[in-house]
Amino acid sequence: MPVLSWIGKDKVVNHHLDVPFRTIERLYSYDEKGQHAEDNGSENMIIHGDNLEALKALLPKYEGKIDCIYIDPPYNTGNQKWVYNDNVNDPTIKKWLGEVVGDDDEDLSKRDKWLCMMYPRLRLLWKLLSPDGAILISINNYAFSDLKAICDEIFGPRNFVETFIWYINGHTDNQDDITSVHEYILCYAKERINLHINDVVDPNTPEDSKILNSFAENSITKNGFKNPPSEICLPKGFPCEVEFLKMPKHEHVDKLIEEATAQGYITREMTRKYRISYPARIDDMQVENYALKEECRVYSGWMNKGKLLQFIKNGFKPIDDNGTQLKFYLSKNGVIYYRRDGRKNHYIQSVLENMGTTETNKYMLESMGITFDYPKPVKLIEYLLSIFVKDKSIVLDSFAGSGTTAHAVMNLNKKGRECKYILIEMMDYAEECTAKRVKSVIDGYGSGKEHVVGLSGSFSFYRLGEPIFIDGYINESIDEIKIKEYIYYTETKKPYIPSPVETTLLGVYFNTAYYFNYSKTATTILDHAFLKTVKTKAEAYVIYADICNLSESELDKYHITFKKIPRDIRKF
Questions:
Q1: What is the DSSP letter of 224?
Q2: What order of strands is seen across the sheet that includes strand 285-288?
């Protein structure tokens, strides 16, 4: 597989491992009661801070649990006039590049900087995505090929799902020689074979379209070099859609069969030559009272031949086929048709049209008292999410911008979903724009005839807190529960649940009990006195402490692995 290279890549490929793990601190909660300091227990989160560090901070609780990710990263066009500055020379990103890439920063092109910024963030997003989840990434022409290349590298080309093409309405003022009226939305799965896709119908589908029917039907005759022909005997009693039908056998059917057997398949030239339609009738076809009066042999290439024979064997009763009812019948023209009842409506096309405009959504934000250029249409994001989310799914947007993703999730919930959202925004407008929009959607916005009723809901607003480690030592200003969460996650990739009985117990995983003997004010010792406090029975033990006074033979006897604080605490 071709691999994309750029200046600075060697510094960022594994940089996600070096990103300091920080805590996330709740500042306030918001719901129908307004803003308040008390924690309302909401699982919806808006996080203000560097999205690389915030993504890492989410790992202990959310690794492998995010069902759908949508991001609208900077497009790297160099436009410095937007509220959402999509130029990677932004001071925050530039500082990060200087610290991580170092001296190479002076030689980096705009393209190199963008790739250095995106790569480690995508690595963490991959870790957060659930086994049956999908990630959707908005992008334009300038960076599409680069984004596709690094997504192939991180997610794997086999997990590519689709490139959606979003037709952008209203860009007629473009002065380029060729007016660009589309953007891309690149879609990858964590594992394509496991991907969850809902039965969704494109909203542009006409109301009279067959796609909206609860059944599907079509002819099963299918000729060509991929469909070797064969004879099928339709027994007496085979159903027909008309009460009476009388069609003689085809005059030159023997010659057709002889030539088709030699060729290996039926060609159009043969049917024209012998004036035979599909399927070729070897016997007379007579129908009375909606069924064949006598058996009739027919010859053709086939689709669903095995299921047709199963239908015949089943006495012409519908057969179950993946939850649908499948039956076969003769048409008024003597053609064999199938009909599949109980089909779920499903039609998702790669071109997205009539999904709203950035201009309309800009005006909507203005009615909330928010100024934000080029926000993605909520209708677009709502439709994309509806393809992949399940009930109670968690949706993540780490380039939250104006908060369109949260708005889209709340719209889906109004239609019966119970999804949660996590937004991350590194820019200073996380409070005055992102959170303000979500508050407006909860409460309602606009005035007079333009008033939009609130959708209710709740969220909590967070900021990145202190790092767990400072110069290799545990940061003692951190809440001890946060330290325990971190250590148990590094050991098991599972969330820490405090024990009501043993304060030092982190948990039990695969018959191994994990203990954290730690104090901010004293040196802790793994000795016989501590062992007497251990109440949980397990096949093995991992015990953290400052010092171990047990001998190697005693550790072996009790199946204990000693880990020294802080030396043996894993970094991830």
A1: B
A2: 244-247, 285-288, 291-292
Cα 566 to Cα 572: distance, rounded to the nearest angstrom: 14
Record the tokens describing residue 403, joined without a space.
Answer: 């908060």
What DSSP element (H or E) covers 488?
Answer: helix 480-492
The per-residue b/e assignment along 245-269, b for 16 or more CB within 10 angstroms, e otherwise, is bebeebeebeebbebbeeeeebeee
Task: Select from 171, 147, 314, 342 the least CA-distant residue to 239.
Answer: 314
Residue from 379, 499, 361 nearest 437 by CA: 361
Strand partners, 516: 544
Q: For residue 477, what are its two tokens? A: 């200003």
Q: Are 245 and 334 in contact (CB under 8 A)?
A: yes
Tokens of 69: 């990710």
Q: Are 105 and 136 in contact (CB under 8 A)?
A: no
Confidence grade of residue 83 (pLDDT, cut at 50, 70, 90): very low
Amino acid at 37: A
Residue written as tokens 């949980």? 536
Question: Alpha-carbon distance 420 to 276, whole Å?
Answer: 60
Tokens of 510: 């695969």
C-alpha 336/C-alpha 330 separation (Å) is 5
- Model pTM score: 0.80
Q: Who's near 554: CB < 8 A, 6+ residues apart?
A: 560
* Inter-residue contact 286 to 245 (CB < 8 Å): yes
**SS3 state of residue 23:** strand
DSSP 527-566: SHHHHTT-----SEEEEEESEE-S-HHHHHHTTEEEEETT
Q: Two tokens at 237?
A: 């009693």
Structure tokens at 359: 């201009």
DSSP state letters, 133-194: EEEEEEE-HHHHHHHHHHHHHHH-GGGEEEEEEEE-TT-TT--SSS---EEEEEEEESSGGG
CA distance 116 to 118: 6
313 sits in which H/E element: helix 305-313
12: closest CA among 110, 145, 90, 102?
102
Nearest in space to 401 (alpha carbons), one of 378, 377, 433: 433
Q: Give pLDDT tens digits for 47-82.
A: 999 999 999 999 999 999 999 999 999 876 555 444
CA distance linking residue 246 with residue 231, whole number of Å: 20
State how far the alpha carbon of 169 is from the alpha carbons of 86, 183, 251, 402, in Å: 21, 11, 58, 20
Cα-based angle 107, 109, 111 (whole degrees, multiple of 5): 145
pLDDT per position as a tens digit, 153-188: 999 999 999 999 999 875 555 567 788 889 999 999
Is the distance from CB of 312 to CB of 267 less than 8 angstroms? Answer: no
Q: Which residue in the block uniquely carries the two structure tokens 């890439």? A: 101
